[in-house]
Amino acid sequence: MTYDILITGLIIIAQILAVVVPVLISVAFLVYAERKVLALIQLRRGPNIVGPFGILQSFADALKLITKENIIPSGSNKIVFILAPIITMVLSLAGWAVIPFAPGWVVSDINVGIMYLFAVSSLGVYGIIMAGWASNSQYPFLGALRSAAQMVSYEVSIGFVIITVLLCVGSLNLSKIVLAQQTVWFAIPLLPMFIIFFISALAETNRLPFDLPEDESTLVAGFFTEYSSASFVLFFLGEYASMILMSSMTVILFLGGWLPPFDVYPLNVVPGVIWFTVKVIFILFLFIWVRGTFPRYRYDQLMRLGWKVFLPFSLFWVVATSGFLVYFDMLPN
Amino acid sequence: MVLYSLTFYLFSSVAVLSALMVISAKNPVHSVLFLILSFVNASGLFVLLGAEFLAMILVVVYVGAVAVLFLFVVMMLDINFVKLREGFLQYLPFGALLGIVLVIELGILFLTDRSSNIYNNQTPLQPIVNEVENTKMIGQILYTEYFYLFQICGIILLVAMIGSITLTLRDKGGVKRQNIDSQNTVDASKAIEKKKIKIGEGI
Description:
The complex is a heterodimer of chains A (about 325) and B (about 200). Chain A is built from 13 helices and no strands. Chain A has about 325 residues and is an all-alpha fold. Classes of the chains: A mainly alpha (about 325), B mainly alpha (about 200). The interface between A and B is medium-sized, with 32 and 28 residues.
């Protein structure tokens, strides 16, 4: 009896580690890739000193940041100030529990997987808002307020996009969403929704061109202005981990998860996890590409895009998709 | 299942304690944060009951949207909560009365209706695993049996939304608005005007 619990516990911990450790390592390489791609876009060399081609640069940076002094401002609300980066980091890792990397490769295959992901990504705003408030300083506070309004606005259109996909699947389980795309990836029939989801994902992860919460040209560093050392590292890791999480969500919803593009001989012997990784890397490249290409939105433009363009359009698509499915009797049972 | 009981007691005790902290914390922002903790634990209890859809909706709606706006308001408004609390004790009898009524009602519920099938199920600490997902079950009952009630809920929400918009929408004069279409269609002939300026005169 007690041994059973012990063994179950050990298996759970092993599964968690098997997901979290690769995620953290890929965060390190994502940071390196981002700097390298941006450098190529801007005709520079990028990091090229630490290790071959500078590949160990992020590890060196992390080491440097962690060994620095952790400064907690005397006017801050200390407990909330320390909790904020922890919450950001934990939430960006918690979502990985339901991501299916390949058939059966999932820590927890729950029925409401997509709702869980949506819930976890909507909680992400708390880390930022708590950081901004607890710092007790003007720039972080402005950053937190911006972020609260921005993330709540874009969640609405993300919700409608998810509903459109779910109408075509008939289940909230992520593995079933992937399996429903065996004939055609949802990115093709639902292309406008794919684009809206990608842009909303940029806003949800506070990436350029929507990174107004940290807007360095007006708010110094936004909500993490007062953070240093290890707590800054947690914010940094959290941002990139949630970027990868949103990319995997895009891949699962629209690009067929672990499925190969065509179910033919040389493509379908490649393991699913490799297809999944390749697709996630592609979406992440788009994230970086957008960062290197577009200027930052003004805040009122950002709000206008969310509420006046995306919301009506995605609502229209929910109605159109359900009408289409009912009319042609293609509703999944 | 020891694990289920342990998680149940963990979630419920944290939920109750954080609910207590909501009303006893000095700082209003801390109160809201404890409220969020309480919501999250309540959703954990829903998961243990096997009501996973309700649990996720609780987190998405209450924690992800409502509590964010709560926090927003509490952070923005400079309310003197110490002053608000001054008359705290004079409301105590009323609050206590409400609490006692609730406890009595719950007690009646537990003591009387034991024969109904809710209480026949004597293994409450395990999630009820069904063939049909409970998202589907909710949908099947909500859109058939309770269809009219569901529509009425929608209308009430619509009325509330229109009401709050009409209360806050004020058309102040002299506000410069941006017309995105006209801005995007601007070209050099519309935007630039050439003028000959005489020296020493200006425009």
